[in-house]
Amino acid sequence: MGTQRPNEETSGTGRRALLGAAVLGAGGAVLGMAGTARADGARPGGGPGGYGVQGGLKSLPKPTIVGHRGASGYRPEHTFGSYQLALDLGADIVEAGDLVPTKDGHLVCRHEPEIGGTTDVADHPEFADRKKTKLLDGVSTTGWFTEDFTLAELKTLRAIERIPANRPHNTLYNGRWEIPTFEEVLKWQDEQTRARGKQVWIYPELKHPTYFRKQGLPLEERVAKLLGKHRKDRRTSPVIIQSFEPTSIERLNKLVDNPLVVLLSSADSRPWDFVETGDPRTVADLVKPAGLREIASYAQGIGPTLDLVIPRDAKGSLTQPTTLVRDAHKVGLILHPWTLRNENPFLPANFRKGTDADAYGDVFGAYQAYFATGIDGVFTDQPDTGVLAREDFVGH
Ligand code: G3P
Ligand code: CA
Fold first, then answer.
1. CB contact at 8 A, 339 and 7
2. One biological process GO term for this chain (predicted)?
3. Which end of the chain has fewer beta carbons closer than 10 Å to its terminal beta carbon, N or C?
C-alpha cells in the first residue's frame, strides 16, 4: 500500500465486539435515524475519567461526524487551530492526530513522516542536509522525515497548507501554528472538555507502524503508555484508535482497552504489515465475511474508503452500495468511512458543480447517499457541513 490512497488529495478535478447488536440496534440503517441524542443517558462529568465515560462509543451521536485532521478544509491540517475549529464547528470527534515519531521517541501529529508539504522545513537552511530519499512502505519518497528530527527541532517549524490549489484561503494561516505532540493533544482534550462542559473525543491514527518498528521506534507501546499515563486506555475512554495495519490494531488490543478501528484502503491494496509478513490477503479479502469476522475478534470497527461503501463507475459517479455495511454490522463492527470533502475534485463526479478545483460541489447530496447506506459516521474535512448534513438526514 502506498501513501496515496483512493479518495485522497489532488489539486486537479478530475477486545471486544462490545458494540454488537446493542449499539447497532435492529439494523445498521436504524443508526442514522437514531438522531443525535445520547444513547447512554450519561450525565456530563459523571464517573471516573471525565464526561460521559459510562457510554463510551454508545454516547456518540449517529451518524458520527469526525473532523478529519481537525477542520482541515479551513485550516492547515493537524494544528491546534484546525483541531479547535473542528470542535467549534460541531465535530463529535477530532482526528488528533495522525501519529508519527520523532528521533528522540516523541509522538507528533503529522499526516505522514515526510513533512515537506505540511511545514516550512524547506525554508530552514539549517535542516537542508536532512532532506533524504527513503523507501516508505515500498514507495520511494523524498523530503524531510520526522524520525530524523528531535522534538525540539520540529518545534522550530511551522505548519502550512498542504493543498493550496484546492484551499487557497487556508494559506492565510501558514506559519501560525507549530506541530502538536500527542501528549499536548491529550491535555488539550481535557482542557476543552472542561471548557465546553462536554466530552471531547479524539481519534488518533498510528501511521506506518511496521516501518517505524523496524527503525526501533515502535508506535503501539508509546501510544499505550501515554494513554495509560492520562487514564485514557479504557473501554469507555473517549479515544478511538485507528490504523491501516491490522496487526498493529491486534497489538494494541493487547495493550489497551480503547475502541479500535482497522482502516481499509482500496480493494486491490494490501496492508503493508501483510506485505512484510507475507500474508497474501488484500483488502478485498478483508471485507469478505470471514475477513470481517476476524477483524471483529480484536477491533470494534472499520474505516473503509468511501468507495468500498459505494463504488464509483468509470466516470467517477456513484453506483450501487456494496454489502459492506450490512456485512460489517452483522459481525458487530461499526463503519466510519473516509473522507467527505466539499471541494469538487474529492466528490463523486455526479455531485460536482463545474470544474474549479477549489469550488464546492453538491456535498450535501453526497452525504445523503452515503448516510442512506447505514454507515455509523464519516470523516470529513469540513465538520460543519457534516453536522448540517446529519440534521438533514435525521430529519427525514
Ligand atoms: O483515518 C481516516 C483517514 O484519515 C484515513 O486516511 O490517509 O487521511 O489518514 P488518511
Ligand atoms: Ca488519518
1. yes
2. glycerol metabolic process
3. C
Give this prediction's pTM: 0.89
Closest-approaching ligand to the CA atom of 335: 1
Q: Which atom of ligand 1 is nearest to the CA of 339?
A: 3
Distance CA 91, CA 68 (A): 9
Atom 2, ligand 1: residue with shortest CA distance: 338
Domains of the chain, start order: 20-394 (3.20.20.190)
Please state the atom number of ligand 1 nearest to the C-alpha of residue 66: 2
Asked if 162 contacts 118 with a C-beta cutoff of 8 angstroms, the reply is yes
Provide DSSP, 349-364. Answer: GGG--SS-TTSB--HH
Q: Which cell numbers hold the place of 1?
A: 500500500
Q: Is 203 in the pocket of ligand 1 (CB under 6 A)?
A: no
40 pLDDT above the threshold of 70: no
Q: What is the pLDDT of residues 58-102, one digit of tens each?
A: 999 999 999 999 999 999 999 999 999 999 999 999 999 999 999
Q: What is the CB neighbour count within 10 angstroms for residue 310? A: 21
Kind of pairing, strands 107-109 and 98-101? antiparallel
For residue 200, give the 3-state DSSP assignment: coil
Whole-number Å distance, alpha carbon 57 to ligand 2 midpoint, is 19
Q: Cβ distance 200 to 193 under 8 Å?
A: yes
Report how far apart, in Å, the C-alpha atoms of 82 and of each of 91, 117, 177 are: 11, 16, 9
Q: Cis check for the bond before 339: say yes or no (omega within 30 of 0).
A: yes
Q: Contact, 337 vs 320, CB < 8 A?
A: no
Q: Does 210 contact ligand 1 (Cβ within 6 A)?
A: no
CB 154 within 8 A of CB 179: yes
Q: What does the alpha-carbon distance between residue 284 and residue 394 come to, in Å, rounded to a whole number?
A: 31
What is the distance in A from the centroid of ligand 2 to the CA of 205? 6
Q: Beta-carbon neighbour count of residue 135 at 10 Å?
A: 9
Q: Residue 190: name the closest of 27, 53, 4, 293 by CA.
A: 53
Task: Please give the C-alpha separations between residue 344 and each of 36, 70, 169, 372, in angstroms, as whole numbers.
Answer: 28, 20, 16, 21
pLDDT in tens, 207-255: 999 999 999 999 999 999 999 999 999 999 999 999 999 999 999 999 9
pLDDT tens digits, one per residue of 165-187:
999 999 999 999 999 999 999 99
